[in-house]
Design brief:
The structure holds two protein chains of two kinds. Chain A is mainly beta. Chain A contains no helices and nine strands. The chains are: A mainly beta, B mainly beta.
Amino acid sequence: DAKTTQPPSMDCAEGRAANLPCNHSTISGNEYVYWYRQIHSQGPQYIIHGLKNNETNEMASLIITEDRKSSTLILPHATLRDTAVYYCIVRVLGNAGNMLTFGGGTRLMVKP
Amino acid sequence: NAGVTQTPKFQVLKTGQSMTLQCAQDMNHEYMSWYRQDPGMGLRLIHYSVGAGITDQGEVPNGYNVSRSTTEDFPLRLLSAAPSQTSVYFCASSGIGTVTGNPTGELFFGEGSRLTVL
């Protein structure tokens, strides 16, 4: 699976959009981009995933660049409860022999 | 719907003791896995299973055993606990996409088991 690079930490004002970047310059054509988050010491929570098209769900939007070498997770109206570590993961869908590999992630601090 | 249930939530062991961390899921998921998370670190895969009777090693398997006799349960055994195994352990499961027939990649995690080895 391709390696990802994320900034170690970011701040965001409550109510504003949080834009979390992820670099995956070695991504291959059949690898998906996944985002998870971990609030405090709870188990990680799935947010969203995509292949090449932008995706949106009730939690967030995922913007993938045309060359697929980077992506951005957007939380449109961040709240204090969105303070968490956000993980960007790249993997081949259907690769049962390789479960998700979590890196260091980005620690997002939403401030009042 | 309970999702993924881990027991115990907290455990203190002495070096050399053995124990089993329990994990059960009620979503009929084929894929289950165990991760450990050390303070300030990301999650590292210990063992995983793609179905009943099938298990394989992850990134950090040494000192741990697993078995998968049923779809629902995936226990993690520490054979002889060491202080280096002090960590938070997470169990996760995922299903198969109804369209693709492949794993969805959407993992459901338990709340974690916090283990301290003295």
